[in-house]
Each structure stands twice: as structure tokens, then as C-alpha cells.
Amino acid sequence: MDTLFIPGWLITFVIVAILVLILLIKGYVNAKPNEVVVITGLRKQRHLRGKAGFMIPFVEQRSYLDIEQFSTDVRTSESVPTLDFINVRADAAVKLKIGTTDEMIARAAENFLNWNTTDISNSVQDVLEGNLREVIGQMELRKMVNDRQEFASKVQDNVAPDLAKMGLEVIAFTVQSFSDEGGVIDNLGIENVETIKKDALIAKAKAERERKEVEAEQDKLANDKRVAADLEIAQKQNELKLKQAALKQEADIAQAKADAAKGIEAEVQRREQERVAAEANIMKQEKEAEVKEREVKVREQELDANIRKQAEAEKYARQQAAEAELIERQRKAEAELFETQKEAEARKAQAEAEKFAQLQEAEAIEAKGRAEAEAIRLKLEAEAKGLDQKAEAMKKMQEAAITEMVVDKLPEIARAVAEPLTKVDKITMYGEGNASKMVGDIMQSIDQVSQGAGFDIRQLLAGALGVNMTVNKLKEGDQPVIEAEKLASKED
């Protein structure tokens, strides 16, 4: 049977390969994130955290440090006097972990290599309690109770250097409670409760006062806004009234101008009608004067032919009646003139009073007053012009009118003079020249009447009858003779 031959070098290579593989597997190291692998041996200390590495088996060795945080309770084993000499006990919770720097890991490796967190917590109890007691002795009880955060910060700051020397870090330090044997803390609580109640009452009263102040302020603001709104409404209404008044004023001005224009136009038309009527009346009166002049001539001829002596007698009566009527007409004319003047003065005074009152009113009424005053002035001017025209017409026909009146009244005058004589049986005259004296007295009376009337009755009658009368005083015992001469040729 044949024997298998294996070279020696191959066997050596296989053995070496197996040994190398075993060494690699034995020397491979893998560190978790929450642990640190500490490699010590051939060279200086090496640390692996959250990564893999190699070490030389049988020459180097590995150890573990747990770097996750852990909690521990710290209590004072006995009462500790505070700065104000009150014995208290304190209970706190502390969170610790091994530092992650190489220096901190080296320190922790020196103290806690391959320790669990419970062992580490037990080992640092005396350090934590000592620092806790130290800080209690530095603070007053009221300040510790009222400001626990400051107390915890002081303890954490005080213990951190000591723990750092062991490779530990303080993550958090929380005070859970304070207690004392004399009930001081409870009394502080009661005091605080009362203080809180007092503060609450003060705060409530202050809040109530502020609420009332706010309500009063709001009421004031609301009232101010309401007053401002009412004022604005009143102003708007006033502006509306002023605008309406202005519009009414403009309307009144326009109406006044229209009324004034109508009044002026009406006054112009009235004046034109009066002028036309006056001209027509003048023409009518001239025609009537011509007719009456002809009638007077006819009557003159009749009187001259039929009743010379009766005409002498009636003449005196007519003269008296004419004088009386003329005086009456003059009085009436003066009265009418006086009434016209008074009416004009009254109108003027009324216009001035209306003008004064209208000056106190708005511009529209003032304009209307001016228009009315202008209309009144035009009317008065028209009336004055009409009166002037009428006076002119009367002036033209005065002589013919007076003559007509005298002629119309001559029969009545004659009857009035002759009627008393019908009741007389006889007339006896004494003295010389009685007949001529009577005639002279009659003529003297006629002259006196002419002077009182303001016109010559003899000339008037002479013009009316077309004759000129001459009275000659006869001698004693003679009868008066009236001579008349025709003056028609002289008048022509």
C-alpha cells in the first residue's frame, strides 16, 4: 500500500496560518457606544469607545468602563445646621457619568475599572453627602427652601471638582426635600401661605381697583366718543342748515331778481300805459275844450242877444260861486297835495325802515329789499311823471275849464242874486248917486273877489263872453249904463 507524503514546509505553513488566525480572532476588540475598552500591556494605555481595534493577545489585556449615566440618591445621615443655625436634613437626586475625555477616562480607569454603576454610586456617596452638608452650612434655611435651584447649583459646583478627580461628571443635581425636627419649615410654609393669601388679597384688590380704573377709563372714552359723535352730528346738522340757508338765500336772491325784473317790466308797462292814457286824455280834453269853447261862443251870443241885464245880475252871483268853488278846489288840491306828500313821505319812511330791517337779514332779503325799493322808486317816479303830465294838461286847459265853470254857474248866480229881490216890495235909496254907487260897490266887490281868487274875473268873463265891460259912473240921479264892445276882432 502507498503512503501519502506531505511536505514539511506545508505543514509548517498551515500551522502558522492557524496560529495567526487564532491571534487575530483573539486580539480583535469591539467597543460599544456606551462603554470604553481600556487596553493595557505592551505599550501605553489605549482607549476604544464606539469603535473596533486590535490588541496583542497574551501580551496586552482589555478592561471595560461603563460610560452611561446613572442616578444616585444623596441624604444627610444626620441634621446639619444652616447658616442661621437651624438643623435640617436634605434629600437630593444626582445623575452622574464617566467623563469622555482621555484624561477623565484614565482617571475613571484608575478608580472604577470593571466596576458597575451601583458600585460607583456607593463609592461616591460620602463625597456627595459631604459637599451637600458643606453647602447647607453656607446658606440660610429660608433661602434654601425658597431658591432650591441656587442651592442645587452651589452643591453641583462644589462637588464637581471632587468628582472630576475620580473621572466622573455631574449631569444634574436636584433637591428633593428639606426637613427639620422643630417644624420650622412648616411654619415658613404657614407664613408663606398667609403671605400668599395677603398677596392674593392685595393682588385681588389691586386688580379690582385696576379693573374699576379701566372701566372708568373706558366709560370716559366711551362718553368722550359719544360727546364727540354728538358734537360731530350737531356740526353736520349745523352745516346742513347753513347749506340749506345758503341755497335758500340763493333761491331768494334769484326770486327777488326775477320779481324785481317783473316789477320793473310791469312798472315800465304801467308807465307806458299811463303815458298813452295821458296823451289820449290830453287829446280828449283838447277836443272837449274846443267843443266847450264853441258852446261858450254860442252861449255868449245868446246871452248877448237875450239877457244882458240878467247876465249882469247873474254875473255877480256866479262870480261869488266861482270864487267859493275855486277856493274849495284850491283847498282840495292843497289837501290832495298834502296827502300825496305825506303818502310819499310815509312810503319813503317805510322804504327806509324796510331797508334798515333788510340790512339786518341775509343777503337774499337785502337784494329783495333793494329790488322792492327800486320798484317803489320807479313807481313813484312814474306817478310823479304822471302827475306832471296831468298838471301840464290841467295847465293847458285851466283857462277853458275855469271859463266853462263860470259860464255854467252864471244862471245860478243870477238866480241867487235875484231871488232876494223878488221878496222885496220896493227899494228906497238915499243920498246922491245911489244907483251909480250901487253899481260901483258891485264892481268894487268884483275887484276884491278877483284879488282873493288870484285872477281877474272881468277879464275872465270878457274872454268867455268875448266882450269888454266898462262901467261909467253917472251923475247924480242918472242910471248906470253898461257899454259892451265886441272884442272878437281884437282877440283875432
Automatic annotation (TrEMBL):
Tell me which SUPFAM superfamilies the record gives.
Band 7/SPFH domain
Q: Where in the cell is it found?
A: Membrane
Query: Where does this protein have coiled-coil stretches?
Result: 190-397
Any idea which UniProt keywords this protein has?
Answer: Coiled coil, Membrane, Transmembrane, Transmembrane helix
What sequence ranges are listed for the domain Band? 26-192
- Its chief place of residence is membrane
Q: Which Pfam families match?
A: Band_7, Flot
Spell out where the chain crosses the membrane: 6-25
Q: Which PANTHER family match?
A: FLOTILLIN-1-RELATED, FLOTILLIN-RELATED
**Similarity field:** Belongs to the band 7/mec-2 family. Flotillin subfamily.
Name used for this protein in its record? Flotillin family protein
Q: Which organism is it from?
A: Streptococcus lactarius
